[in-house]
Every structure is written in structure tokens, then in C-alpha cells.
Design a protein that fits this description.
Layout: E1 3-7, H1 14-23, E2 27-30, H2 31-38, H3 44-53, H4 66-73, H5 77-101, E3 107-110, E4 125-130, H6 133-144, H7 148-157, H8 161-167, E5 170-173, H9 178-198
Helix pairs in contact: 2-5, 6-7
Length: 199
Amino acid sequence: MFVLGITGGIGSGKTVVTDIFSELNIDVIDADIASRKAVEKGSACLKEIENYFGSEVILNDGNLNRQKLREIIFDKEDKKEWLEKLLHPRIFEIINNELAESKTLYTILVSPLLFETGQNKLCTRTLLIDADEKFQIERASIRDSVPEDQIKNIIEAQMPRSEKIRLANDIVSNDSTLESLREKIISLHNTYIELSRKK
């Protein structure tokens, strides 16, 4: 199975890119959705999280209070580490199951933390959607209606752009028009079709 891992920093344009691949009839598996499934209401992982952090991380409707959990683990490495050890294997399992169900010539796994979580090990090839930091800040602050300083803090907390560039097999710069981006993706799509047929 040929799996293309797609990643990029906040505001880089991952969603736009995966939408283009979807239009080209390629299955897209989203690691963010898998991570939400791992802690859905009634799940074993959610129960363990409640036992460890207390009932304050559970909303009245029985779902995870993500905001509260983020606040608790923000500067506490030990708690963050515990959470990652619990969730990463379950997220991997969900992603693997979804990859196995894919019927397209190649499949995409999109993950903002592709390299940080080791999810790139599930991929045949990786594609970085790269953008200048000023574009990232501008796009993400408008999209999420949050101050630019907040986006800067998120960027600083993520793996450095230079490291992602070093690790990725392919890089697409998303600093121009949507049409230019689409042309680059269609060209890569044709390459991936060829590579998947040879695999």
C-alpha cells in the first residue's frame, strides 16, 4: 500500500491541499479525526483520562473537555507524556484500520504532527506543505479569529520549519495563488500514481 503522509505548520494550507486530492478521488485519512475518535464518549481511553486527571476534564454531556485538558498539561511534561503514551497507540490503531479500508491507488494520511508522533513510519513518502511564517500567521489568525501573537506561540511550540523541510521527501510551497497550488498538486498526484503502480 502506498501511503502519502501530508504535514505542515498551522495555516500552511493542509486542508486546501487535501481537498484537492479528494477532488482527484484519493482517500484522505485525517490524524486529527482519529485522535478525536480515540477519546470519544464512552471509550476506554476517555475513562483512563478521567481516572488520571479527574472529572473536571469531562463535560456535562460526557465528552472530553479539551480546553481544560490543554490547560492542565500545558507546562507539565510528565502529564503530557502520560497522555501521549496512552493515546498514541490507540490513534495508530485507528489510522491503520482506516488505511486498510482504503480502496484508492494511494492513500493520504494528513497529520499536523506527522514527524513528531512517528506517524511518518506509516507512510511510503511524505509531503510538506510549506509557507512563509507571515502567511501562516495571517491565514490562521483570520481563520480561527484569534490574535496573531497566539498563532506565533503555536508556531514556536511546533517542530521548526527547517526540520520539517529536512525530513520531508517532497515540498510544496503555498505562498502564491490557489491556482498555482492546484497545478503543483495535480503534477505530484500524477507522480504518486506512477509510484504507487510500481510499488
